[in-house]
Amino acid sequence: MLSVTGIFYFYADMINLTTKIILLIVPVLVASILVTDALLVDSRATDSHTVSTDTPVTPVTDEVRVVSFSPEISEIIAYLGGIDSLAATDINSTYPDELKKLPKIADYYSVNQEALSALNFDHILLSRDFNALIISKLTKYQNKLHIYSITDGSDLLKVIEDLGKILHREKQASDIINDIQMKIQNLREEHANKHVIKTAIVIWDKPLLTAGGETFLNQAVKICGGSNIFEKLTIKFPSVSAEKLIAGKPDVVISLIDDNQNLPSSLKNRTVVLTREQQDSLMKISPRSYETGIPAVCQAIDSARNLVHDKTQTAD
Predict the structure, then answer these.
(1) CB neighbours (10 Å) of residue 304?
(2) Which residues share a beta bridge with 252?
(3) How many CB atoms lie within 10 A of CB 151?
(4) Is the pLDDT reported for residue 217 higher than 70?
(5) Helix (H) or strand (E) segment spanning residue 245
(6) Which residue, among 82, 136, 71, 72, has the nearest Cα to 104 in the 3D structure?
(7) What is d(CA 17, CA 20) in angstroms, rounded to the nearest whole number?
(8) CB burial class (10 A; 0-12, 13-18, 19+) of residue 225?
(9) Per-residue pLDDT for 241 more than 80?
(10) Measured between alpha carbons, how far is 167 from 289 in angstroms, rounded to an integer?
(11) Segments in 167-210 forming alpha helices (H)
């Protein structure tokens, strides 16, 4: 770029103007050049701020980093859109698939303390069902430790709300809670005033374990218009004999196991085996339970209701 003096002499030589005319033109040119230079300098400053590799810009963020040792909690965090907040999880946190890519530093029996110490995190989140001996070894993280209990739908909503606050995702938490409440309302209305179906849910066969009245599975049966034949048992997952299961005269047996060879043969034609994903979504209480698990229970109960109705019609 020419200097202001160079431009002055250039114009003076080329057009041979009088000194007076030149003196009138030069101030205008000078002002124009100074403004242009100022704009170029400002442009260069802006460019160096945004693309220079010498002085990288660190964005301001309030992102929270957490470690989850609970499959349910990890899944809830995923529903909140907070997978990027997870620094590590336990080996059972595998749904959705994105969680499989995260470092796995714990199982039910142990925590890799060295790996945990190497992480940068703000909170450790785990379930009360986690191994008590392992929890006792996390006392040095006491100020960062959050222990949750998710045994039913009410617990789930509270945990979603709390995790929303921890992750600064209150809006997402509120939306998920509203969605779950709407799903429950719709399912209850759909199955209200329908014939009540006697139901048993089997979660294991050696020994034969069923769902008692103090379980999330019992809640699922109620939502779908069923009646759990073992609801009065206060043990969450009581062991019962095959004879007792038969004596309960269930209209449907909903099985959360793949191999049903040990179930009473007289009940096999009334048994509905849920898929692996459906089983998983019922045993791990999360928003997915209301998308996959409970609708599967309702479908099984509806199928039995149709059979009962057909038999009644035939008898009439």
Answers:
(1) 22
(2) 199
(3) 16
(4) yes
(5) helix 242-247
(6) 71
(7) 8
(8) buried
(9) yes
(10) 22
(11) 170-191
Q: pLDDT above 70 covers what percent of the chain?
A: 78
Side-chain half-sphere exposure of 107, counting CA atoms within 13 A: 2
Residue 73: name the closest of 134, 137, 138, 162 by CA.
162
Residue 82 burial (CB < 10 Å; 0-12/13-18/19+)? buried
Q: How many CA atoms lie within 13 A of 305 on its CB side?
A: 18
Q: Is the dihedral of CA 173, 178, 101, 106 positive or negative?
A: positive
Give the tokens for residue 250: 């269930």
CB contact at 8 A, 218 and 233: no
Q: What angle do CA 123, 125, 128 make, to 5 degrees?
A: 145
List, in sequence order, every beta strand (DSSP E) within the chain.
66-68, 86-90, 104-106, 123-127, 145-148, 197-205, 208-210, 226-228, 252-255, 271-273
Average confidence (pLDDT) over 57-63? 49
Q: Token match 């009360």: residue?
A: 128
CB contact at 8 A, 80 and 169: yes
CB atoms within 10 A of CB 32: 11
pLDDT at res. 260: 84
